[in-house]
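**Backbone description:**
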Amino acid sequence: MAEQQTPSAENQSSSTTPVSLTLLDPDVLECPICCEPLKIPIFQCENGHLACSQCCEKVKKICPSCKSPNGYSRCRAMERVIEACRVSCPNSKYGCKENTSFGNRSSHEKQCLFAPCFCPVPLNDCNYVGSDKNLRNHIRAKHKDHVIPIVFDTPLTLVMGSSEKIVCFQEKKDGELFVVQAFRKSYGLAVSVNCIAPSAHGLGRFSCCMDVIIDPCIKLKQAFTVREIQKKIHEEPKDSFMLIPSHMLMLTDWSFGIDICFSRGMDSFIRA
């Protein structure tokens, strides 16, 4: 009677040890129809052409590559490949150490707190890009004289001129960066407030209250949540801004003062 051989501990460990591979063409792991990363379940026609589950339904189970009318069956082999694949975050160079399954990489990218943030200081020679934390340190080291220090819940007065303008603020303790931009239009001036940070944080971390003083008799007041964006905007804002009508600004030749106050959470709405 032959003796049954059992795998050695060395062979067992080598069979489960991850192996680093280089994929020369990442497109092979994408659905050829929608070009999105393949996710389980994955289907194939009788000639082996792949499709994700959503595309399989959209094409009514007729393969767009070979027009096979026989529908699709599960491609278990490709599902095992996708399930075994792990990819590093594209923001790894900014500090993210997350490895995700190939099919879920886009979901992680939307939530990644290491998404690159761009220096908002209006200097032509600065093209710095880095993580939220590193950008704060960059501002303190390189642009200390180009930002206005602020303390949460402490108002300060900002004087705006007649032309489009950008003003940068940095919180003294933790270093959060805020950008106030003015966009001049025929109907008035749109003044936006944003925080330079990964959008994965979502709304609600910060709020802002602005009091615009046209003259002693004309004042505007508004509070809003501050959006978090990775770079300053270059077009008229659609939210998180105050509109100052042109007929008011004509009284002061488009120059005016703003009392502005930044807060954590929704405290600005209480103040307003």
